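Morning, I've got a small favour to ask if you have a moment. The fold is given in discrete form, as structure tokens running alongside the sequence. I'd be grateful if you could look everything over and explain what you see. No rush at all, and the record is pasted right below.
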Amino acid sequence: MASTKSSPLTIPLFLTWMILFLQPMVSSGNHAFSIKEATVQDLQLAFEKNQLTSRQLVEFYMGEIHRLNVLLRAVIEVNPDALYQADEADRERKAKAPGSLSGLHGLPILLKDNIATKDKMNTTAGSLALLGSIVPRDAGVVSKLRKAGAIILGKVSLSEWAHFRDGSVPSGWCARSGQGKNPYNISKDPCGSSSGSAIAAAANLAAVTLGTETDGSILCPSNNNAIVGIKPTVGLTSRAGVVPITPRQDTVGPMCRTVADAVYVLDAIAGLDYNDKATIKASKYIPRGGYKQFLKIDGLKGKRLGLFKNEFFNVGEGSVYAKVFERHFSTLRRRGAVLVENVNASKYLEAYSTSIDYETLAMTAEFKLAINSYLKQLVVSKVRSLKDLIAFNNKFSKLEKTKEYGQQFFLDTEATNGIGQKEKEALLNLAKMSRDGFEKLMEENKLDALLSPFSVASSILGRGQYPGIIVPAGYDREGLPFGLCFGGLKGSEPTLIEIAYAFEQATKIRRPPSFKH
């Protein structure tokens, strides 16, 4: 069956001459508006003042993708219907349709390529094995984005199969687009698996982007690319239509240049989806009136923040990291936060000490069940099971140019046989770790959030299905960014947003990338 899907980076030919000469400024009458680094609020205000149209915005981002993607390898394909969607948004705004002057309406968003779209684009998790497959419906989060009036600009690269193919596969690499590059230092790791989302947001290839996380896949690339990443409580956002690793830990979240932008996206995608049962339980956490109300400049006042300085922030005395984090601790205190340091950290971290990797043990069995279920639901696909994927990789390794990369995770997973006794014990131990570790830490010390540098706490947050927000904190001597992460108990997004936004506004660390070689 011939595929009607677009090829990678398909851009309408009649636009080629235009995008080569697009500038980061658009003019309307006597007014000029700079798109680069513009926030969601900036863009909506420009729409309102007739300084910008959605078509101009899409054309600008297409131009930036055309100009930069040959270096960054962040975007796999551009939606051939993006300009049509932009024109529709412009018509709705002109007609003052409900909701057309706020939120994400008329704004282009790039999606990680494991998030399904029922359109002319592919959903492949970065693999040639799913090229030409057809999904039954939009992913739940995509349906919500379309309802909010967002423009689906395209799909971005990722560490193939969300970094669950083989340990030898580099972060940011997938067969469909090659090796993604960090725009702040091209030679450095962009981190995975939502690498393309982070690169694209950092390099201004879209207004906002969407990523997914199982263990570190939003927090780590956000850390390495100087953007804000929100890893929501599992179930707060739907995973229906997302190529899975494990429903127990998978979550979908915003990856944007500012906390406010990420919150606008979270407001659009959070909520009930009957195709994902986890959203039924988690929907109780969503506050009436949404999350924008927690963007408070004084959000740090009175917040109790746990600080494991020796355990998490042991980053080398006198190092650039140590100096920067000490300044941030002072800023947090000046803004009214209480840094709780007199905590017996070993009492809580000991809960995670084990010679057995329970997370991987459980995840390995869960992946086989989840991926087989996903593949069977596809309308069209040349692979229908994990066994088929393994066979595809063996047969087409030369075509994929991945002969040096294996698929050990796939092989280990295929060898499992459902959730047996050892998997059940692993799940019980994971739950016990979270109860005796993170939950006791937070409750016994009355903490609002746990501080951690980079994404070092991602496994604690991932295993326990807890939320986290990472915010740019500084740059090392080679120009590579690093962040400060705030993690909390399930449903604590309102508090984390207050903390993260107030910290961001007090520091304003982020700067555009240098594309340093």
Residues 421-444 form the longest helix (24 residues). The mean pLDDT is 93. The CA atoms of residues 16 and 63 lie 9 Å apart.
